[in-house]
Each structure stands twice: as C-alpha cells, then as structure tokens.
Amino acid sequence: MVIGLxxxxxxxxxxxxxxxxxVAQRPILTAGAVVSLQGTPHLWxxxxxxxxxxxxxxxxxxxxxxxxxxxxxxxxxxxQDLRRGDPWLSAxxxxxxxxxxxxxxxxxxxxxxxxxIQSVADLExxxxxxxxxxxxxxxxxxxxxxxxxxxxxxxxxxxxxVTGPILAWGEYGDLPGxxxxxxxxxxxxxxxxxxxxxxxxxxxxxxxxxxxxxxWGMSGDxxxxxxxxxxxxxxxxxxxxxxxxWNHRIQKLSPSGEPLAQWGSYGQALGQFxxxxxxAVDPHGxxxxxxxxAHRVQKLSPxxxxxxVWGNRGSDPGQLLWPRDxxxxxxGxxxxxDSGNNRVQKFAPGGQPLLQWEITxxxxxxxxxxxxxxxxxxxxxGxxxxTSEKWVAKYSAAGQLLAxxxxxxxxAGVFYRITGLAVDAQGxxxxxxxxxxxxxxxxxxxxxxxxxx
Length: 453
Fold this sequence. Notes:
The chain has helices at 76-83, 140-147, and strands at 34-37, 42-46, 52-57, 72-73, 93-96, 99-104, 113-117, 135-138, 167-169, 184-187, 193-197, 202-206, 212-216, 229-234, 240-244, 249-253, 259-263, 276-281, 287-291, 296-300, 306-310, 323-328, 334-338, 343-347, 353-358, 375-378, 384-387, 391-395, 401-406, 418-423, 429-433, 438-441, 448-449. With 453 residues, it is mainly β. The chain is globular, with a radius of gyration of 24 Å.
C-alpha cells in the first residue's frame, strides 16, 4: 500500500483547503489525491488502493510560512531521487502565475522549501495526474454515504498535526555502526540505543541520532565475550544485561561495558538456560529470561538466583512454544512473544497466565492468517507494542489494538524483517530490522490510530 508522497493542492499554505469542484459522488482516487471534509481542518491523502490516510491538520499550515526568496529549481533527475525515499512530511503544489512550485516540507525544517518544476507532467513520477490535481471537498452527509465512515470517527484534532520522520541508521557489515543480523535492542532514559549485534558477537551503543558511541564484546565464551547475543536490557542503574544465546547464559555489564556477572549454563534445570532468547529487568533488579528451546520463562534475583519458572511446550494458556521476546510493565506483568503459537501472552509477576491475543498478518484484520510475533515492548503508560516481520502495532494492556504502522513499499519506513523492538520514555518505538541491518525510529505520531483513537 503506497501513500501518495506528493499531494497536489492548488491552494495557499495559510488557508483552508478549497476544492476545484465539490463532489457528491465518489471520484477516482488516484494515488496522491487530497480529500478534505467540509467543516473540519483535516486532510486525507489516497494511496494506490483508494484507501484514505490522515496526513495533516490545516491549522498547522498557518504556523509556518513559505519563504519565497528561497525558491530553487529542481530537475527531472532530482525529482526521481526524491521519489526514491526522501522523507516528505507534507507536500503540495502551489501556482504562481504560470510557474509551478513543489513544497518540500521535512519535519526537521521550520520553513518549507519551494522547488520550481517545469510542468505538471513531471509529477507523473509520483503516481499523480490530472484527476487529482486539486483537493476534493466533501459534504459530511456525502462522505458518510460514499465511504461508510461516520464523520465523528474521523476527528484527529487531538493528534499532533505534524507527523515526524521515520529515521533509520545502520548497514550491513562489521565496522563501528554497521550491523550483521541484529536481534535485540534497548533504549535508556537518556535516549541511547543499545543493539545486540548478533552475528558480530557484540553489543553496540548509539546516540539517539545513530552515531556509534561504544562497542563491547567479541566472539568467545569468556567474560564479556558473546556467541550470538540475542537480547539486551537495562536496569535502573544503567547496567546492561545480555542474553548470550549460544553460551546459554546471561551476562551483566556495567554502564561502561565492564563484565560484572554471568549466570547459567546449558540445561533445563533451575538456573540453567536452553538458548536464552530474551532478557528483561524489573525495577527491583530481578531478571526475567525467555528460553527459546525450553519453552519457558525464568525469574532470577538480582544476584542471579532462580526465583520462579513457568511455561512448558504447548498451546494452552500459560504454555509456550518458541518464546522469542518478553517485556515487563510497571506493575511487573510479563508479556511474552509466544512466536510458535502466533500470540502474545500476559502473565502476572508470579507467572499466572492472565490474557492472550492472536497476532495476524494484518493487525487491522483478524481474519488474515496468523503470524508469529517477533518482539514485544511496553511504554510508561502501560501500552504494549508488538511487531511481526512487517509491522509494528500498539495495544492496550488488555490487548485492544490502538494504532499500527505497516511496512511501506519503498523509502523510509520499509520493514524487511523486524527482529527487535524497544520504546523510549517518550513512547517512540525503535524497530530493529534484521533484513536491512538497521535501526528504524518510528515516531509515535507515525502510528496510524485505529477507529476513533
């Protein structure tokens, strides 16, 4: 599903949308067509499947001004480069006499840029044409009749009017900042990002902008060495915990990367691990471990002593099959990505099963095929975030879908094979994409709300 990257709007940036012609029946919604609802300040853009996506609030337009002194020419080849993924927050076409200007409006810019183009025909590169050259304004009654959506459900006034960019960093390799088959990710209170660089047998620390800050580890089974680290977590003091998958142990490092402790050996007795795939730490320093091949979760004390264990192979409530990830909420509840059962399970702090919900290929359609969750995380408000290989979704603590973001087809926002997930203190998801060897930062505002959310 491709959202029209460029919306052609024949209006000024400081006024409400004006139609070339109001319509009473549904038009041909080619990709990029702009739709506005009369009496509201909101804009929607059609994708190539005629699905409408909320993209902005015209009240925000009055807060920014176009600097006509900074107009610049743009060539056909530059348009083609922009088509390949330059992040456009919002775009439109302004007419100034016979001249045509494309509005480039990246989220980090305070002032949009005006790019002078030669003809509307150039914009066919973006999948738009004469049918959607302008904005279509609907009467509320006509909207409800043609689209079957209640006007009240489309109010997005409570949302930020500006959607932040989807940022990504990292590439395949073994140099600093490069990644090879990364599997686990964590974010600290300062916004630093920690990645389990699995195939490179190391942990990397990045700034929130993606600058490599530190690297710890190398291949081996000694203290501070790793074999296929799959998960990374942090405690309240900034200590780093790693699920050292092929060494069947948990390692604890200081904030500066010095080895502090290690627990476990291969096996399925208490305190042993059979391929630990995920690790999490509660505010008291207790450590939770999901074991992929033992189909269970173990809880350890801050000193590494086993306190509890739950789960065995199966599909009944409380049973697990290939648990791939886990996360804790502020109340100590444990959420497990029960990948072999295509579901997320919620457990009480002591391991009692509380809730489960199925994961499907399209989170918006429970009738699509079931798929394995690849990662799970929580935010400070108790919401639960889940990924499959191709999407990230936000749920309530009761398992109700609140918002979601599916993979784009090109450019920023393409998910190739998601394997890790973390959420920072501001509620921003960070997705780890094994397929592109990258970290993808998805602003909360880029998650598309479900229903009237």
